[in-house]
Design brief:
Three copies of one chain form a homotrimer. By secondary structure, chain A is α/β, with parallel strands linked by helices. In chain A, about 40% of the residues lie in helices and about 15% in strands.
């Protein structure tokens, strides 16, 4: 593996190999890498969780990191082109980790440089390392991904993590994916074409809540709504609390890429169904596994 | 020692042990620690000096650091809760160092996580690592803390370092503490209750200047005063210059947590009484000693 | 060598020694240094390229770094003096790398501290490590600096890199330096006094383009012009594209300290004359060589 660009680049076998490396990292076995590497974290868009877990993953492998955590810290502010900034970083560091608001930014970077490029989320579609964390957490809970019913709830229109996850799921055989969203935040039609697993669409979480093994919640952003009343109505109807949990299967799990605002009530944190903190924690071993693949011996 | 939360948590014996480790660090002996640790510096409130000395202390022990140096770099900007941010960091790193504007932030964090938490200053009261530096510098100069007369001058109402120092002093037996401040910046009454050493209050620095062994100056912030003339009067009356030094005991020392603006004239820097730069320098060995206590073998 | 303050501090012999260390670094030989050093990067003025290459250079030698990348991250925002900030950093770290908008900032810092100070660009005149990269890239292309004709084009009035390069060139014997700029951006008269090599001044790039071995382009900043039309005219007349390259000597090279905006057309990147990316890449070995000189065994 040279680059990590798109969720759709991974074969099932590659994903399972990464999970297996992550398993052994969690048991305390560090993959063999040469520790004198420098990783550049090029975050044009801020993200504490993703930035910090990449930073820590690199450091736990004995690497050093450099880079920036917002566009304001770069010469892009002096109107330097993205290409020139990438050329610079790739001439200094051994690997580039890129976060950007534009679709295709990571792919473009990989065409400019010979150094490995890892997509830490770009545009509206791709966040492959997050999707690996999502699926790894599911596999951890159920021992498998095939055959599960997955409900994805909230903002399916703009949610990058949702699009990326749905794409990576095509490497597996989920029983069904329930897409739950208000009408104005439905999954864009073109995403449906590439799906090779059964799915349904609804705006009523109540209709599918008892059926899911995995409930994947997302943040609904106020600014997507022209009208605050409309926003509040949607927010309320998709809020997950202990009442929601009672209606779920006993072993069902709840995921969220975090940060969460009010989508999941705090009281849910203490239930055994809440797996979103574990999902976040898996960011370090998954990203260590990826670094070991692209920078390994 | 697991956490470093409050100045009042330390016994005299613990403080003396930390001083003794710091002594040997200053002589070039590095405490034994496992170097593969990652420390998260979570600074919700900016502070160059404290941030940098914690950063360097960790690195001089062979640790790596991660984290952020202002709230703007975090998902708190996306309205994530402090608790969720702490959960994330504690799942990535081996130790949390927290700076926050709210009282109790570090304590709250320590209740959420199993990892050691160090308070790098929170709210209006606690800055225990600064107080250790303060007392260590006094002990270095006099070989003791007991029996000394200490004058604390300036903003005693809002000054976090003052409150923290006065609390840690209860582990020792100072002869007397002179509290020198304008009326509107006097020490809050509830702080006086916990004191087990003699103290006096005055607004006239001249009355006590010849009596002190230690003069602890603080920054007086303009924004505390409704009226600029009032501010300027206070600023002038507490300004320490070479004339002030002449009225002090010959061996008396001057401390300041820095940054100083105009409270201490530059001319004082060259006197042998000025110990504030040494006090700042002691930040690294004291914090190395603390890291070795909470993360040591 | 203790400090790196000014381009004029270097003898020809010292420059050639640094180049020779950089040569062996590029061949994969790391200079012998003790890896337990901490370098403070004190960037009061932002600069991605310079900051990152210093950061990576330190880390590739096994050092750790600390510091800040903009004034807003420091207590200067609380009105702390530059001198006090420098005292603090020098008491924590083993070496200071300083970037500042004021002339003499690095020199002033070196007078305050016993630790080595490296000037990473200050004021309108000095950027000695950039000049070393510039000359190293020229020497790499031609095997020498003596006897070459160098054209410097663009903003010669405010361009720090230009002033610094012209100063360091006095250690060599260039055949001639052509200074090409619009009238309002000519080299300040006092700079001409110190030059010990032949030079000419013109505002017409066409007149000298066929004569130069090295074309050193600079960014022309819009804000230097009272009138946008004037700016656009100048910008056009100094823009380097493939037509320009055709009129140059076959082996001539093009340099630019980057970031470039429109001064050099993208199409030029693919010509063998374009050496500005290599010039940027040389930042790491040159700065590693400097660190090894000031912090070496």
């Amino acid at each position: 593996m040279k680059n990590v660009i798109s969720s759709s680049d991974f074969t099932r076998k590659e994903i399972e190999e990464i999970f297996s490396v992550a398993d052994s990292i969690k048991k305390g076995k560090r993959p063999k890498v040469k520790g004198d590497k420098v990783v550049a974290l090029a975050f044009f868009e801020p993200s504490t969780r993703t930035f910090t877990s990449f930073d820590v993953a690199a450091k736990r492998l004995g690497f050093q990191t450099t880079g920036f955590r917002s566009e304001h810290e770069t010469s892009v502010a002096k109107e330097e082109s993205f290409a020139d900034t990438m050329r610079m970083l790739s001439s200094y560091a051994d690997c580039l980790v890129i976060r950007h608001r534009y679709d295709g930014a990571a792919k473009f970077a990989s065409q400019i440089t010979d150094k490995p490029v890892i997509n830490a989320g770009d545009g509206k579609r791709e966040h492959p390392t997050q999707s690996l964390m999502d699926l790894y957490t599911i596999r951890d809970a159920f021992g498998k991904i095939d055959g599960l019913t997955i409900g994805i709830v909230g903002d399916l229109k703009y949610g990058r993590t949702v699009h990326s996850l749905m794409s990576m799921l095509t490497a597996f055989k989920p029983k069904r994916v329930h897409l739950v969203s208000p009408l104005q935040l439905m999954l864009p039609r073109n995403f449906l074409k590439g799906l090779n697993y059964p799915y349904s669409e609804t705006s009523d979480l109540g209709k599918v809540i008892a059926d899911v093994d995995v409930l994947y919640a997302t943040r609904i952003q106020k600014e997507r709504f022209p009208d605050e009343m409309e926003y509040n109505k949607v927010k309320e109807s998709y809020r997950i609390d202990c009442e929601t949990v009672k209606r779920m299967k006993e072993r069902a799990i709840i995921l969220h890429a975090l940060p969460r605002i009010t989508e999941i009530a705090r009281e849910v944190d203490r239930t055994k169904n809440a797996k979103y903190f574990e999902q976040a924690r898996n960011g370090v071993p998954i990203r260590m596994a990826l670094f070991s693949k692209v920078l390994g011996a």
